[in-house]
Amino acid sequence: MTEPLVRPKRKNPLKKTREPLLPQAARSRTALGLTAAAAEGRFQLQICADCAAVIYPPRDACPRCLSPRIPFKDARNDGVLLAETTIRASTDVYFRERVPWRIGVVQLDSGPTVVAHLHGGVREGERVKLEFKLDKSGQAVAVALPPTEALNMEADLQWRELTCDPKYRRVLVTDGRGPVGQAMARAMSDAEASIVFVGVADPWKPFPGEAALGKIPRVEIVPLDVTDTTSIEDIAGEIGPRVDILINTAEHVRAGGVIERKSLAVAREEMEIRYFGLTRLAQSFGAILRARGADGVNSAAAFVNLLSIYALANWPAYGAFSATEAACLSAAQSIRTELREGGIKVVNVFSGPLDTEWYQTVPPPRVTPVALASAVLNALRRGLEDVFVGDVAEDIRARLSVNPKAVERELGS
Amino acid sequence: MAAPRMAYDGVVATAPVTIPYRRYSTNSAHWWIGRAVRAVLQLAELKPADIDGLSVSSFTIGPDTAVGLTQHLGLSPRWLDHVPLGGASGFVGLRRAARAVQCGDAEFVVCVAGDTNHVDSFRRTLSTFSRFAQDAVYPYGSGGPNAGFALITRNYMKRYGATREDFGKICVAQRENALKFPYALMKKPLTLEDYLNARAISDPVHLFDCVMPCAGAEAFLVCREDRARSLGLKATRILATIERHNAFPDDPIQIRGGWAMDASELYAMAGIKASEVDFLETYDDYPVICMMQMEDLGFCAKGEGPDFVRANSFTTDGSFPHNTSGGQLSVGQAGAAGGYLGLVEAVRQLSGAALGAPVAGARIGLVAGFGMITYDRGLSSGAAVLARMDG
Predict the structure, then answer these.
(1) For residue A96, which residues of chain B lie inside 8 Å, CB to CB?
(2) What is the model's pTM?
C-alpha cells in the first residue's frame, strides 16, 4: 500500500527553487515508437509480422527471424518482477537528486525482459503490469505497477514524477464564463487541487453558472481576459508563481468556411481569442512554469490546450474555425518544446463537436463539457500528452492514420 | 560436427606492459596507447618499423579508430585490428593476432588497450555506450552499469544462496594481492568488515563491489616462439582460446556467460583439465561475475560458486590463486584496458616477471574476460589458457 500524499507546506520564498533537470532524452529513431504510443497512453511493443516475436528493446530487425517487418502494435502488458534494486548513488544529474530510486527487471508474459521504474506498490517476485509513460524529458520509459488498482496509488513519488496529478497542485482555468471552463473548475476541485483559479473576463458582466461556480470549493475567481495582454500580464504577475497547471478553456466556435465569412471580422476575433490568447498565456506564464518544473510535490506540471479535432483535418462547415485551431495546434507544438526544459508537459486535448450552443445544429455524438473535463483530468493523472475525446475525435484520429486524403474529401462532402 | 580447432603451435605472447593507472588524466587515449606501444618496443628491443601488426581497443579514442592511430603513432602495419569489445578485448585481440602470426600475415603484432579518464568523461561515455543503453537503460537512473549488475547480483543471491560475505571474501583477497602490486590504485588494506559496512550504491551492490574508473593502458606482443627466443624474451604459450557473444539470450536474467557454452572446448584444445590450472584471472567488474566464471569455467558446478568461495582462499599463496595483481576491483578499471589486465598479468606470472607476488611454481594460467553490457547483460565472453614456455 502506498502512503497518502502529504499536503505540501507553503513555499519559503527565501529558499532557492530547485532548478529542473531532465533524465536523458536521447533515443534512437525506432525507440520513438514507444514515445508515440506513450503520448496517447497506449502500451505498444514491436511485434514481428512474420514470426510474431514480441521485441524489446526496440530494434530494426527481429532477433528471432531477422524480419525487418516489426511494427509497433498494442501488446499485452502483464509480467513478473524478477529482481529489483534501489539505486542510492548515480552519476546522472537528474537521478542524483532523486535517489533512492527503485528500478527492476520485468519479464513480460509475452517474452521480453524490460528494465523499468518501479511503483512503490510492486514487490519482487510478484505480478505486475507494465506501462510506458513520458518522463520529464518527454520520452517514454517503462514503469511497473501493481496489477490492480490500490489505495493511494497515485501518491507514489516515482509515479508522480511521470504524471501531472492536480491533487495538491494549483490550477488556472483561463475562462470560466462558459460551460467548459465551469466543468473544468469542478473537476479540478473534485480532484483535490489546492486552489482552482478561474479566469473571468469582464467580471462585472453576469454570466450563466456564475453563482454555482463561486460555490465550488477552493475556486478563486480572478479577472482574466485572454484578448487583453495587460490583463494577462497583471494576473500572471500576481498568481504566476502559484500556478502549477494551466488549462486554457477560452473558446470561440463559429460556423462557416473561409470564403463564406466575406470579411476578416470573425476570423480576427477567432484568432484574437484562440491563437493570440494562447500566445499571450504562453508568454506570460511559460517562463515561470518552466522555472518551477522541479519545485517539489506541487511543482509546475502541465499546460493544457483544448483543441478541436478539426485542428488536424479541416472541416469546411466550420472551415475558418478549423484553421484557427490548426494555428493553435502548431503553436502548442512549439510551446511543448519550449517548456520541455522545465519538464512541463503540454497536453493537447482534441475533441469532437461539444454539446454547447455553438454546435447547436451538429448531430450527435457530441462531447459534453463534463466529459471533456473528465478526459483532461484523466490525461493529467496518467501523464498523457495527446488525448482524443469522444467518438468523433477518435474516429477522425483512426481515419487519419490510414488515409488523410480520404478524410479531407469526406469532411468536405 | 565442427572441424577440430587448430592449435596455436609456435605462437607466443610476450612483452607484457602495464602503464601505471591514474584516477584522472588530462592526457588523451592516444597518449596512453602511445606509451604502452613504446614500452612494448623497449621491452622487446624492437623499432617501430618492426611492428607489422596492431590490434587496438579503446572507448575514448574517438573520433579515431585503429587506423587513425597508425598515422598518429607513425606505424605502417600490414595487419590492423580494432576490437571494441570492452572486457573481452584482450582475448579477441590475442586470438586474432595469434592466427595472423601463425599464418604469416604479420610477424610482430602489438595488442594494446588504453583509455583515458577525464573528469566527467566517464559519465558521458556511459550515456552513449550503446543503442540499447541509450534507449532502455540510461533513462532509468543508474548512470552506468551498477544498477544492471545489482539486478544480476540480487537474482544470483536469491537463486543460489550467495551472501555479501561470499562476494566480500573475493574482494578482500584481491585487495591483499593488490597491496603487493605496485600499480594498484587501491593502496589501503580492506577487511571484510570494511566491505560489509561500505555505503550502498544500488542494493545489493555496495562501494567495494564496484570498480573505480581510471586512465591507463595495457599491452603485449604476439610473435613466433622462435623470434621471441632470438630476441631473448620470456614468453607465454597460448594453449587455447574461446570467445562467444550473446550467449543464452533466453535467460531472463544473466546467470551464466558464454564460457558455459565453450569451456569444454577450451580445455579440450588446451589438453588440460580445470584441476591443472595453477591460477585464475577472472574479469571482476563485479564479484558476482567472478563467481559465475568459476562455475562456468568448470571449477565448480552452476550454483556451487558460493560453496567454492567458502572452501578456498584466493590470495597468490592461497588454495586457489585468483586475480593475482588485485584485479580491476583493486587496480582500477582503465576502460578497455580492463579487458587486458588479467591477460597481461598472466603473461607476467608465467614468464617469471610478476610485478607483485608471484604464484609459486605456476605453469598454467587461465584468464577470462567479459564485456559489453549493452542492455541487461554482458554480451561478450572470452578466455585463454596460457602456459609457461620451457627452457
Answers:
(1) 143
(2) 0.94
